[in-house]
Amino acid sequence: MKKIHILTLIIFTVISCQKKENTLFSKVSSDHSGITFNNKIVETDSFNILTTEYIFNGGGVAVGDFNNDNKQDLFFTGNQVANKLYLNQGDFKFKDVSKESGIEATNQWKTGVALIDINSDGFLDIYVCAAMFQSSSEMANLLFVNQGLDEDGIPSFKEMAKAYGIADTGNSMNATFFDYDKDGFLDLYVLNNTDIHKLPSNYRVKITDGSALSNDRLYHNNGNNTFTDVTLEAGITIEGYGLGLAIADLNYDSWPDIYVSNDYLTNDVLYLNNGDGTFSNKIDELLKHQGRFSMGNDISDYNNDGFLDIMTLDMLGENNYRQKTTIRNTKYNDYVLNEKFGYEYQYMRNMLQTGQGVGIPFQEIGLMAGISKTDWSWSPLFVDMDNDGYRDLLITNGFPRDITDLDFGEFEFNVRRYLKPMQILDSIPKVKIPNYAYKNNQNGLFKDVGEEWGLNIPSFSNGAVFADLDNDGDMDYVVNNINDEAFLFENTLDKKLEQAHNFLKVDLKGPKTNTSGIGAKIAIRFQDNTLQYYEHHLNRGYMSSVQDIAHYGLGSADSVKSLEIIWPDGKFQKLTDVKGNQTLTLDYIDATKVDPNEIAFPFVPKKTDPIYKDVTDSIGIDYIHQEKDMIDFNVQRILPHKLTQNGPCLAAGDLNGDGTEDFIVGSASGYSPEIFLQQKDGSFTKTQLFTETKDKKYEEEGLALFDLENDGDLDLYLVSGSNEFEKGSYFYTDRLMVNDGKGNFSFAMDKMPDIKASGSVVKAHDYDGDGYVDLFVGGRTPFAEFPTAEKSFLLKNVNGTLKDVTETVCPTLNNIGMITDASWADIDQDGLSDLILTGEFMPITILKNGTSSFHKLTATGLDSLNGWWESLLVHDFDGDGDLDLVAGNLGANNFYQPTKERPVTLLAKDFDNNGTVDPVMFAYFKDNFNDETYRSFPTNFWGDLYGQSPLFRAKFNSYKEYARTTQDELLTPEELNDAMKLTVNYDKSSYFENMGNGTFKCHQLPQAAQIAPINRMLVNDFNNDSKSDLLLIGNNFGNEVFVGRLDAFNGGLLKGDGKGGFEMINTQESGFLVSGDAKDMISIQNANGTNPYIVISQNRGRLKVFQKN
């Protein structure tokens, strides 16, 4: 038996060693490396997390060659402990020379670090930020100027920040050197965060005049070893609790811009460089939303499209337990206060803002990319760790005492008068979890490979850097930890012979005053015309400075077609047929001035001839949709989205019989629909449909222009809806208006049945072939009863009078679902048009037309895909003669990520019998740190759930108890009796190929079309190749307020291949930019006979009209 145990132990040891050796990274022990730095923080009764909120914000790391031996050394900043400098001895062994170098600064609390040869003497100097303490001497930032090497080759440093004029005392978190005015001298930006947190999350008027204690500082390099504070004259005047700082030319105008990520309520800031020594914050124009508690950041072109992307970190936990124990509830009032005080929208999660080009808003896709939830996070770094040609993402996290724990908060409030501080401190949970590593999947998305790469060690990690410490062509990883030794990870990629991992390193030799070439831009291009783009800035992630080198993974390619570099002053150099697996040195003196026309994207904006142009102004369209902000969540607290923000709808037709197409825009309650009559020159005039106040109180959810009486003109059916009126309100009544042939409409309520329902859509068609146009009217959900389906109707036109034949012809419509769109089409080519419906929490449904009755088709390939379907388009996309479908769904950029195996479930009932339906939604999340099994949990936070009903307050005694409660445990069998159950298992907008046998085959639309809800689609052929293309619009600004506005879409043009395949055309190339809450889209024939107008409506936004160039 003893031998068996020994054998088992040996086998386990061998397996463990094999597993360890198989990871990409190998942790180098301090016994081998000599790196014993530990950012140890000791709390006391008077100095702890309860008295000093930023006590655990940690320190940074810098990598550089301080002794000029061509090996990368390491510098760590310490908070309560001394800074440490380790000289690289080779083979991952380092020598501690901190004391003799004179960089320890034991009397100060050190944070961020930046490297520079500040006096151009050929030796690297160190700028260290200071914080926390009260006296100006203790708060002053430090500049350690390298005095050269002693006889043992050890560098010594002299602190000279005051002499240089950069001993900033603003409680600095980080700093970076860059040449903002392109005068050849590196200037200094200091990121400040004053540790005076008096209600930092409370709304108030922003301080934008530079007077805030937490205002950052900009120092101009005078070129004579002195700096001048130019903060105010440069326009750096916006307050912020700064934690992240990045420099990049985000608008491709050759001038470096500044991105600052701010904690708490203060918005992030994007200072665009005006090129005249000043900056302007343009973040509201370029980003549609931001992180709420923004930490570290990084900027890089991670998807190799030539456009720079922005990553910011936040604090959202990945698993259900963390989310439910740290977030109390959500508040729509934040939106109201945003508007009042001029704040941009912020949400608590990591943000991945993907660049789209100059003048086009970034698209935030963090949820879809899989990197939005990494807990209390600090440093993000984009770096190609496996040399496959795509930059991966490494994230540090952890916090020694989690003061966001809600149960602790209530405990501390109740007992703080009775317990000593240290007793209270001992009750605070710790967040010691592994850092995250995400492999770039080469499609814009990421895969969590923390365990696979060997980086999943629980820690309290802050600053981090990457560097090739052993000069083997792959990037190693170094992390500054609190209360643990620093991590040193060796990248073992070069030992994995079975993988293609070619690389190219570029060492820049800049001019004397910028030897690192900071601000240079490098692009490498391959034979297949793909590229990688890089801007050379060293301060990355959080409080840290990475290796002074440009690193490219090449994957299987052993060379690049060309390498191009532009130095900060515009000088250019191009090399061709550059071999891989080398360190290439580029010297500034080899670059020359060139004709700007010789410089191509991504160094300059992409040259395009847009397919579409915005003609709104030129044809006389001046319309902005107005609507009162209704707060649906005051009625049903846990709604997944608003039901009052769906318009405006559009309808097109020749209203006045003059031979030109006109259109009508629906209105919100309190406003009139607008009629736009097209003139002979293609311009439009505008008139209101209603003048009486009583007629304006309705809200139109759908419009249909059709000939009711077959008298040759177009009449108008108006669907009333929007859940802002009490149930049974007269304002849910649909209306019918007849046309006098000249565009004048009058009510004809006697020609229609009394339909009083919260409707959504109307579609006109002569379904029975009797020569009169009939109507389908879709219903959404009654007031305060979501997700109960409103009745839908089939209205038969009997000699010019509409009759409700729902009960006799299609009774299924009484409870078919929450309808969002519909279409009439002959799906099976039997000569009769069938009715196709989309809706929320339901499948795409086909009602087969039997002339006298309809029945629901089953086993279609559609009926198994329950979605949040928003829109529908029927067309023969593959040219085989039958009709296919394209349906707009919520898209993949959502919080819930449903699948057939992990569906979203909605259980609804008036559980507490108070007259309001309680819609409790569940989704699959990882359980907790110790059990990463996916289980179905309530999606709502406890405070929101018991805000919906006190029933849910009484069920639990703590947030922890609620956090452990699954779908099966939340409600009793008795409570579930008669409850409605709906599910969603599919979220992708898709093309459905008609197989000709009553079934459809699902094909997802391109990933670029999955970043937000698709609300409307339109067929076109923009390139006249006889293959059908698609225009798309979308977004939903009325989504619930935790995930927030689904706003990533900027409009889209999908190029069809004639076989049902589609490719997204970049917005810069398409010219089709619709970035708001776009709701409807129609095509109108141009009176001039040229290309048709594409008219798009946006909720509380401008009506836009496009035309093909």
Question: Your description of this structure?
Answer:
This is VCBS repeat protein. It holds the Pfam family FG-GAP_3. InterPro entries: Crtac1 (IPR027039), FG-GAP (IPR013517), Integrin_alpha_N (IPR028994), UnbV_ASPIC (IPR011519). This protein has 4 domains: 437 residues, Methylamine Dehydrogenase, Chain H (7 Propeller); 97 residues, Immunoglobulin-like (Sandwich), CATH 2.60.40; 408 residues, Methylamine Dehydrogenase, Chain H (7 Propeller); 80 residues, no CATH class. The protein contains 18 helices and 74 strands. Strand 62 and strand 63 form a beta hairpin. By secondary structure, the protein is mostly beta strands. The strands form 20 sheets. Strands 55, 56, 57, 58 and 59 form a 5-stranded antiparallel β-sheet that branches.
Q: Strands, helices and their partners?
A:
Layout: H1 2-21, E1 25-27, H2 30-33, E2 61-64, E3 73-76, E4 84-90, E5 93-96, H3 98-101, E6 109-116, E7 125-131, H4 136-139, E8 142-149, E9 155-159, H5 161-164, E10 172-178, E11 187-192, E12 217-221, E13 227-229, E14 241-248, E15 257-263, E16 269-273, E17 279-281, H6 283-286, E18 290-291, E19 297-300, E20 309-312, H7 320-326, H8 333-341, E21 346-347, E22 351-354, E23 363-364, H9 366-369, E24 377-383, E25 392-397, H10 406-415, H11 421-425, E26 433-434, E27 436-440, E28 446-448, E29 458-459, E30 461-467, E31 476-481, E32 487-491, E33 502-509, E34 521-525, E35 531-535, E36 539-540, E37 544-545, E38 550-555, E39 559-566, E40 572-579, E41 583-587, E42 612-614, E43 650-653, E44 662-665, E45 674-678, E46 684-688, E47 700-706, E48 715-720, E49 735-739, E50 745-747, E51 759-765, E52 774-779, E53 793-798, E54 801-804, H12 806-809, E55 818-825, E56 834-842, E57 845-849, E58 854-856, E59 867-868, E60 871-875, E61 884-888, E62 904-909, E63 918-926, E64 934-938, H13 942-948, H14 951-954, H15 959-963, H16 967-970, ...
Parallel strand pairs: 18-21, 33-41
Antiparallel strand pairs: 1-32, 2-3, 3-4, 4-5, 6-7, 7-8, 8-9, 10-11, 11-12, 12-13, 14-15, 15-16, 16-17, 19-20, 20-22, 22-23, 24-25, 25-27, 26-29, 27-28, 30-31, 31-32, 33-38, 34-35, 34-39, 36-37, 39-40, 42-74, 43-44, 44-45, 45-46, 47-48, 48-49, 49-50, 51-52, 52-53, 53-54, 55-56, 56-57, 56-59, ...
